[in-house]
Amino acid sequence: MSDSHDLKTYRLFQLTDSLFPTGAFACSYGLEAYAQEGVVHDAATLSSFIATSVRIALGRGDGLFASMSYVSSKNQAWNQIIAFDGMINAMKIAKEAREASVKIGRRLTSTMASVYPRHGTRKLASMVKTRSICGHHAVMFGGLCAHLDISQKDCVQVFLYTWLSCVVSAAIRLRIIGPIEGQQQIASQMPLLTEVSDTILNRRAEDLAPSSPGLDIRMMTHEKSYSRLFIT
User: Which residues, 6+ apart, have CB-to-CB distance to 68 below 8 Å?
Assistant: First the structure.
């Protein structure tokens, strides 16, 4: 049992590893646009940006999709996976956010199906390949975790943490904060991640409400930026 537990833990490490080839490191999730406008410019404003995004964009959006997709994939309810993928595609109004989500999701799926060739992972990869689904990141992440012996709670927590890590990394590269402040930011946001992940586990499709007009507008503006470091 100990070996089995260790393997699950290592798989979680693998999913959060910056070396994992999804391309997520190229995303700032709207942060770059806020930084260009001077709205996010220091640790305090970054903390506010993260908290709002975690509660709304993740808590009622991508994080919830990952959680629901985990359950559907575990039950092999593939039609629900198709429905969730269609819903998230419609809800991501900004083109760059929508396209980035699909690119990351497809890379994640093809990689995991190759590394862990199980019935569930191969099924999801086949659905992407045949274009039954777009392959959005949140849906694929939850769906794949269900077939890696990872618990639903761990799936949601890792999804939230990976997002946080990407945003903080982007903040450092944008010189909003330094490396030490980055680690302080991650540590300070951990209680929020715990709170939101617990809330997500008790939510259903009726609770989806990821709309954030300010974020959507800035992502649309970011698409037209002459100079930018990130794809979102």
Answer: 80, 84, 142, 204, 205
